[in-house]
Description:
Rossmann fold; Tumour Suppressor Smad4; 2 domains; 6-stranded antiparallel barrel
Amino acid sequence: MDSQNKDRWLVVVNPNAGIGKCGRDWNEISRLLDKYGFNYMTVFTKAPLHAIDIVKENIGKGFRKIISVGGDGTMNEVVNGIFNQNYVKTTDITVAMIAVGTGNDWVKTFNIPANYEKAIIVIKNNNEIIQDVGFLTYQNSEGQKERYFINVAGLGFDGLVAQKTNYDKKRGKGNPLLYLKNLFTSLYSYKSANTTIFIDNNKQIKTKTFSIGIGIGKYNGGGMLQVPDARPDSGEFNMTLIKDMSRWSVIASLKKLYNGKIGKHKKVETFEAKTIKIESKPSILLEADGESLGNSPVEMKIIPKSVKAIINYL
């Protein structure tokens, strides 16, 4: 381990984030990091999941401070790198973010500006919170998989919209309204599923489910407040269960998804939970931090106060 790296920032840059915007803007971002006196090393990701290996390798080389430059998916990979290494406790690592993605939802909970210079000043101020992280198991074509997440996981309709949005981004389409566009187009094909939800091993809910949001942070889908009561250091998930709804009811309720009042809808219930298990027929799609992962059955648990994050105090 190089002891000099303990005080250096590892800057993990996803040049493809924001449909290539991150790569185009990197010179400006690096100029600002230099302007504010950051001592850092830059590594560019070359493929999906590459950031996980970058982080694991460089924690082994002594780095304890990481800036994720990209979208929520890049931050998700950084967090998975932190939790898949065995060199130090996860609470020995500090993460920060310069958001250059299409959704940029994790930063919204912490009031971190989209403006690069202002975001870098927030990092320089070094105000930290020790936030929770979620761990989940799920299914995909290869069998059972595991993943950590730092913001919001979604199942059902949310999983389908994320899948379509990620497909569009791979084809070079991307803007802040992409999620909303796919939300409307998905309404015509999506069917609610019979779902059984186990909460903290002491509550069971059987219902026909439209969508489920499980939050550590408050925002997903490019600014939706689907889990408005989530608190990142509460030691519990905040879960919003949206039961079977007609497409017209969903459209009529969109405003509530953005103003944080979705929990007042008669077809919506909210819960706090440390563990959640979800089974469904047919299986429903899963996303976490905007990344399409697989499908149910899904199990998740909260890992309380397990990583340091730099935030902008209100």
